[in-house]
């Protein structure tokens, strides 16, 4: 965590910022290791302080491994101690998380008598580059999801309700080593597959359905994210056609994935292929997103995005086609960009699996 804090201080110094206040649970976890629900970090050149309340002081000392001074404060973390410390070091400009802070907390920050400088993007920038440790956790999470999917294929059958499929997947991910799911599992069967973020319901899997399964595991805070679309019995020609187009678009994007390409260029490869087959209007979301402590992080593989993908960044490749009243197809792998290409930890097959 010291490395991460040092990078933050270096970026702050470039902008003549004397101290950084970290307030969102994801960011204070990233910079300190602390996973409790109430904390503020104050990071300066000379000190790293974690303010939390009585419930979390022991946990904070364990999780920050002595890299932060843990200071006990009341549950509503007041600004007095932070103000005193900023005064002591003569801080004039202070970076804060402009994208996540509440209006109420911002009002308390205004009592600090310093110039508040938006600094959320810089934190995001640092988090984009995953360390070998983080990549290990992502791969372990994906392994749990893959194992769950393979076992699900022996269980899933016509007549099962979508919610049953979702709960099996989540149970199997945990049985295979996950701490938790990384987001609410999506199961969209038949016409529900056209809803990109279908909430699993009471619909029963029926012959002729395609079923979109989008799910992920979480290990040590890190998320995996994959989608497979399977068939219950032989699907109609139209569904087979869109499956083939999405699969080809997925492979074309993976073929192009390497450092140097922009998020927009990667998106366009899949999007142009789908549009060339007449389904451009049926692919309304972006090709992919970064992932890590959060399932959706920077960078984005989206129309016009100019972020250059670099080694250590994560990106999903998830083209889809959705037809109202008929169904949908999405195929997603979660990848990590390397020096000469990418690591794809997803091992589940991609040909259309037909469950009889
Ligand atoms: Zn997904
Ligand atoms: Zn995704």
Give a written overview of the molecule:
- By secondary structure, this protein is α+β, with helices and mostly antiparallel strands.
- The protein has 2 domains: 2-127, 3-Layer(aba) Sandwich (Creatine Amidinohydrolase, Chain A, domain 1); 132-355, Creatine Amidinohydrolase, CATH 3.90.230.10.
- The protein has helices spanning 2-14, 25-32, 57-63, 80-88, 103-109, 120-128, 132-152, 162-175, 237-256, 263-276; strands at residues 19-22, 40-44, 48-52, 69-72, 93-96, 115-118, 180-181, 186-189, 210-215, 217-219, 222-223, 226-232, 288-290, 297-301, 314-317, 320-323, 327-330, 333-337, 342-343, 354-355.
- The strands form 6 sheets. The chain has a 6-stranded mixed beta sheet. The chain has a 4-stranded mixed beta sheet with strand order 8-9-12-20, with helices on one face.
- Helix 7 crosses helix 8 (162-175) and helix 9 (237-256) packs antiparallel against helix 10.
- The N and C termini lie far apart (50 Å).
- One zinc ion binds at residues 225, 289, 316, 318, 332.
Adjacency order of strands in the biggest sheet: 4-3-2-1-5-6
Overall body shape: elongated
Order of helices and strands: HEHEEHEHEHEHHHEEEEEEHHEEEEEEEE
CATH class of the largest domain: Alpha Beta
Distance from first to last alpha carbon: 50 Å
Mean model confidence by pLDDT? 96
Provide the β-strand percentage band.
15-25%
Q: What kind of assembly state do the chains in view correspond to?
A: single chain
The Cα radius of gyration reads 23 Å
CATH architecture heading of the largest domain = Alpha-Beta Complex
Classify the secondary structure makeup into a structural class: alpha+beta
Tally of domains: 2
CATH superfamily of the largest domain: Creatinase/methionine aminopeptidase superfamily
